[in-house]
Fold:
Amino acid sequence: MDTLWAPWRMKYIDGINNDGSHSGCFLCAARDAKDDREALVFLRRPHAFAVLNRFPYNNGHTLIVPAAHKGDLADLPDDPMLALMTLTRDVLAVFRRVLRPDGFNVGFNVGRTAGAGLPEHLHLHIVPRWNGDTNFMPVLADTKVIPQALEDVYDRLTKALQDTP
Structure:
């Protein structure tokens, strides 16, 4: 049997309660963090922020999050709703320039049944995709290979954002 060593997953597993929910709101913790790099928040706006997913489906997997702790789109006033979409557009532009993916998966998982890991705090997923990023590993070994450390992605994105006029 092959072993894939992923000690960073334990932090996620330890945070899961018996009912499948998470202890506290990791998105509010990221919103309130004093150290953006540690929290992986690479872009902030008054009503929304962008944070790298600590447990990514693919390299660069990002969450676009309203600053307000709301679980449904219907609960967001117009300004935060527009801020989510504007930030999504801007992050896609940075990713096109810096990560150069061939496409994206972009969307919401609303409610636990729909796959929301934290249904209490709405967030939009951006998953960059590259031709060939699904290879034999997930198919034959049930293992996803993420080719770059989160901190490296964070550093590349924040550098690109600093260099943007």
Observations:
- The chain has one domain: 11-163.
- The domain at 11-163 is CATH 3.30.428.10 (HIT family, subunit A).
- The beta strands are 41-44, 48-52, 62-66, 103-108, 124-129.
